Amino acid sequence: MNTKWIAFGLTVVLLSLPAFAQKAEVFGGYQFTHLESSLNLNGWNASGTYNFNHYLGATADFSGTYKSNFRFTTYMFGPTISAGKGPISPFAHVLIGGARATVTGGGFSSSDNGFVTALGGGIDAGMRHGLAFRVIQWDWLVTHFDGVTTRKNTRASAGVVLRF
Asked: What would be the CATH architecture of the domain defined by 22-163?
C-alpha cells in the first residue's frame, strides 16, 4: 500500500514540473547611471524575479555604480509586469527601496542613506533553454537624501537573464 502512494506522489510531482518551469529568473549585467549633478557612473546590476504567472512577478533589484572616489548602491523591490515569456519579452516595473552614496578620499569616508524609486522596464530577447539577453533595461530614478529629492536620474542596464 505505501509503495502505491509513493509511486502516485512521484508521478504527481514529475507531471507537475512543467507547471513550475520559468517561475523564476535571475539577471546580471552592466549598468550605466546618470545622477542629476552631471555625475556618470559605471557598475553592475543584478535582480531576481519570481513570476506568479506569465504576466505578473515580484522583483528584488540590487546595483552598484562607481566613479573614482564615489560609490552609489541601491536595493529595491516591487512588482513587474511582462507581456509574456516569448522570444521577445518586454516588461515594466516599479521598484522602491534604499540607496547609499559614499565618498572616500584624503583619509576619510562619508556615507549617506536615502530612499530611491525606479520606474522603468526593458526588453529581454533570444530565450533559448532558459537563457535570454536583456537588450535594454531603462529606469528613471527618483532619490531622496536628507530632505532633498532629485528627479533627473536615469540608469540603463544590459546583460544575461537565466530563467528557471
From this structure: Beta Barrel (2.40)
